[in-house]
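Please check this one:

***
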Amino acid sequence: MDISLICRLFETLPRQGPGNDESTARAFRMIPELPERPEILDVGCGSGMQTLALAHLCPDARITAVDVHRPVLDTLEKRAEQAGVTDRVRTLCASMDDLPFEKHSFDLIWAEGSIFIIGFTEGLSYWREVLKDGGYMALTESAWFTPAPSPEAKAFWTEEYPAIKTEEEYTAIIAASGFDLVGSFRLPEAAWWDDYYRPLETRLEEFAAEHAGDPEAMELVEGVKREIAVYRDHAAEYGYVFFVMRK
């Protein structure tokens, strides 16, 4: 699949994955304390809805928002200007597995819907290097809510993301990676629909019209439609979990 096609489909959405401001705020408030002027790294920030939420939740923070796709960073910069937080939010086009930071640079690392790109264990291990001792990491990851998922849900995830695990398995990896789990919670279904799937359904219609006659684009459209349909039918079996942990 042409990665540029995927980027063009998703880059104009409010979010590039499940989440909402309420969940961002809930996770942030689980952190017991941060320094007076914390340094925050938002990894795989996309167009930055959660970045701006963090800027309002922690008005003394300086936030570095990193993504490999420049257009979404351009959108974030415009949003930051509109929100009046350009002095505290900077963007950086870089890969999450090749971050240009010194060790122990950040008090908090944030990653909503992005760690799957690098892998859960790999992300914790690598990002831990740029986190200060005693610093916090908060992230979301897809998880099974049942040990016996339905054949349709299992087939979908086996094809799309075979590394998906149960909440208990992620908790064990967190401990083995040198973190203490502060807490976790499942994202509500509204976090999938309001700012992600419903806008995405509208975008799919536009995208299909823009790329009519392109077999690869149509394959992408049908694949995303299938993803939405599987979630609609099996939301009780899986979802995103917010994990908050301390190094």
